[in-house]
Design goal:
The protein has about 210 residues and is an alpha/beta fold. The chain has a single domain, classed as Rossmann fold, CATH 3.40.50. The protein has 8 helices and 5 strands, in the order E-H-E-H-E-H-E-H-H-H-E-H-H. It has helices at about 20-30, 55-70, 85-95, 110-130, 135-140, 150-170, 180-185, 190-200, and strands at about 10-15, 35, 75-80, 100-105, 175-180. It has a 5-stranded parallel β-sheet with strand order 2-3-1-4-5, sandwiched between helices. Strand 2 (about 35), helix 2 and strand 3 form a beta-alpha-beta unit. Helix 2 (about 55-70) crosses helix 3 (about 85-95) and helix 4 crosses helix 6 (about 150-170).
Length: about 210
């Protein structure tokens, strides 16, 4: 096997507005870890939520090969939009004899929906002031809901459906998926959860100097 495929892959999941950026920052504080946050482009049609099966398989191959080419014993990316590709990632990892783990950051859906709504209202105001075109992230990397549904209701429904899937995956593949609540994961006084994360990923407790 080439050096590029001798890696441990970590795919961070979470609904969004759930601590995914903080998870990436936390992981990168540990030695020999290289984890990015939302590093896959949207405008090229990569990581589309509704991509058909053959396209998902191609994007999975492209994405994971690229990740394994990085320097580091543990490499990966954190983004909500990886969820529809999870089974494709597992098949790819099995075919290439690469270890893969999925870390899910979890937050109450009422808070997730409220945070998305606040963010979108701020972006809309900024776009009106600057004349910029809105990002198409919500059309690409999220499921679609009826126009009759409010923003808050759509994100709440999305969040509940998202975590229903991740918990189902953890029940089926408990050795590959692990959920961590946002508050537990990032509390300065709760090292038990962080230690559980390190053990799940087999990361040394030492931090970079």
């Amino acid at each position: 096997m080439s050096r590029a495929l001798q890696c441990v892959l970590v795919i961070g999941l979470g609904s969004g507005r759930s601590g995914t950026q903080s998870l990436a920052n936390l992981l990168n504080n540990w030695p020999h870890v290289s984890v990015t946050h939302e590093s896959f482009g949207l405008h090229d049609g990569v990581m589309r939520w509704d991509a058909p099966g053959d396209a998902r398989a191609r994007e999975a191959d492209k994405a994971l090969t690229r990740l394994c080419e990085r320097k580091g014993d543990v490499v990966g990316d954190v983004w909500s939009a990886h969820l529809p590709y999870a089974l494709d990632y597992m098949r790819w990892a099995d075919a290439h004899a690469v270890s893969i783990r999925f870390v899910v950051t979890e937050r109450e859906c009422i808070k997730v929906a409220r945070s998305f709504q606040t963010m979108m209202e701020g972006e809309k105001k900024n776009n009106l002031q600057t004349g910029k075109r809105p990002r198409n992230v919500y059309d690409v990397a999220f499921p679609k809901y009826s126009g009759d549904v409010s923003i808050h209701s759509a994100f709440f429904a999305y969040c509940e459906a998202y975590y229903a899937v991740t918990h189902t995956l953890q029940r089926i593949y408990p050795h590959l998926f692990r959920h961590f609540h946002l508050l537990e994961l990032h509390s300065n006084t709760n090292d038990t959860t962080r230690q559980a994360l390190r053990q799940f990923l087999n990361i040394s407790v030492a931090t970079r100097s």
